[in-house]
Amino acid sequence: PKRIILIRHGESQGNVDQNAYVTTADWRIPITNLGKKQAQEAGKQLREKISEKDAKVVFYFSPYLRTKQTLDEILPYFDDNEILSVLEEPRISEQQIGNFQNVQQVLDAKAERSKFGRFFYRFPSGEAGLDVYSRVSSFIPTLVRDCDQYVREGHDLDNLNLVIVTHGLALRLFLMRWFQFSVHDFEESQNPENCELVTM
């Protein structure tokens, strides 16, 4: 494709209040009003970046509410004839942090993860970063197959843009897999800002 653009979701309730993770299922946590504005700004930036006359776009998004809401704010910046597909993709969803009962358990586990390392630490009843890495790794061949399908349908890969709306950790692990970064490189990396565009 011409480019792959990864976008972290807009600011969520969980980003501003850790209690959100124990009162609401993680995948149902919404974006905030600021998150909505961030997503609209991301839509504008994406529109400026994908400005070629014959550009086509395929959107992939995590099934979490916050990524869906982010995408909903981005899509109006594109005409229907520019969008080839909008595809929900569970493999780019957030790291599963387990079934916590109170905010202190969440905070304790995250503090322990910071000491242990994000890649190998496994949340109780949840996932390690390695598990998310495996998920996003299995997603990459799907991107290749999808691109092959668009070529068979007569589309030019030089005009094709893949936009992936996901989560901070999944985004970094996608980059780790794609560029074959080491575990050390991953541990040194930081999440992008909410709705920051990462262009490959």
Automatic annotation (TrEMBL):
This protein's name: Phosphoglycerate mutase
InterPro entries given in the database record: His_Pase_superF_clade-1, His_PPase_superfam, PG/BPGM_mutase_AS, PGM-Related
Signal peptide: none
GO MF annotation terms: phosphatase activity
Binding sites annotated in the UniProt record for substrate: 8-15, 66
Residues at the active site: 9 (tele-phosphohistidine intermediate), 94 (proton donor/acceptor)
